[in-house]
Every structure is written in structure tokens, then in C-alpha cells.
């Protein structure tokens, strides 16, 4: 256990292209949103040198859909980094409209070196920036 993660909120614009033939957000849009939210989380919290040296590749997404979203809904994805193990990071992302949970997503990602594109472990000091320090 690496402590409590700093929650990261990522606002989502529901646009016409997200809407499917049934009049609500297409399932594929949730995947796009999660990918955008996790990458934004990394870029927003990691030190700039770590962002420049590392990229992320999605390994797995497991999405549980709870309620539909519609055009122009105010939607927010809250990203939590659950843990980092080796070159892998495990995330939970909850997508909400107000207090309503629309979808819950578990995903795993592989960190890769930006030059070699080979799996890369993050320094513990970088990992620590994503978690609440004891006593905070």
C-alpha cells in the first residue's frame, strides 16, 4: 500500500460526436475520456522532467457502466492512482454527473521510456508525488 492517492478531477465536455444512435454517450467515449483523464493526471502531478522522460501505454480497461450520459451534461472524471508496481500503474477512475456515478473504470498502464519505448520503472520520488504524505 502506497498511502492515499491525491484525487485528480478532470472535467469532460460531452460533445455531439460522443452521442450514439440511442441519444446518449457511446460506450467508446468513456474509454476516450479515461485515457485523456489518466494522461492529464500524469502531466498535472508528475515533475516536468519525469513527464518528458516517460510515456504511458494502456494495458487494460475494465468499465462498469452505471447510468447514461447525455449531450451537454456536466461530467467529471475523478482519477485515483491505486498503486505502482514495477513499470505498471493501476488506476481507478470514477465518471460522475453531479453526485450520480455514470461509470467506474479500473485500468492498468505500463510506463515506458520516451526514447527507447521500453518499460521503465519510475523513481520512488516521482511515485510519491501522487500520494498523500503521512500527517497531511
From TrEMBL:
Keywords: Hydrolase. The keyword Hydrolase applies. It is an enzyme of class 3 (hydrolase). InterPro entries: 4-hydroxybenzoyl-CoA_TE, HotDog_dom_sf. Transmembrane segments: none annotated. Its EC number is 3.1.2.-. It comes from the Bacteria. Signal peptide: none annotated. PANTHER family: 4-HYDROXYBENZOYL-COA THIOESTERASE FAMILY MEMBER (PTHR31793), ACYL-COA THIOESTER HYDROLASE YBGC (PTHR31793:SF37). This is Thioesterase family protein.
Amino acid at each position: 500500500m502506497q498511502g492515499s492517492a491525491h484525487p485528480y478531477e478532470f472535467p469532460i465536455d460531452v460533445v455531439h460526436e460522443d452521442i450514439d444512435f440511442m441519444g446518449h454517450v457511446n460506450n467508446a467515449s468513456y474509454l476516450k475520456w479515461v485515457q485523456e483523464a489518466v494522461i492529464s493526471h500524469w502531466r498535472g502531478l508528475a515533475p516536468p522532467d519525469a513527464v518528458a522522460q516517460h510515456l504511458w501505454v494502456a494495458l487494460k480497461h475494465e468499465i462498469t457502466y452505471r447510468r447514461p450520459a447525455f449531450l451537454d451534461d456536466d461530467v467529471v472524471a475523478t482519477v485515483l492512482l491505486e498503486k505502482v508496481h514495477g513499470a505498471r500503474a493501476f488506476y481507478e477512475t470514477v465518471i460522475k454527473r453531479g453526485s450520480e456515478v455514470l461509470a467506474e473504470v479500473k485500468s492498468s498502464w505500463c510506463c515506458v521510456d520516451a526514447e527507447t519505448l521500453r518499460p521503465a520503472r519510475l523513481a520512488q520520488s516521482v511515485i510519491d508525488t501522487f500520494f498523500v504524505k503521512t500527517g497531511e
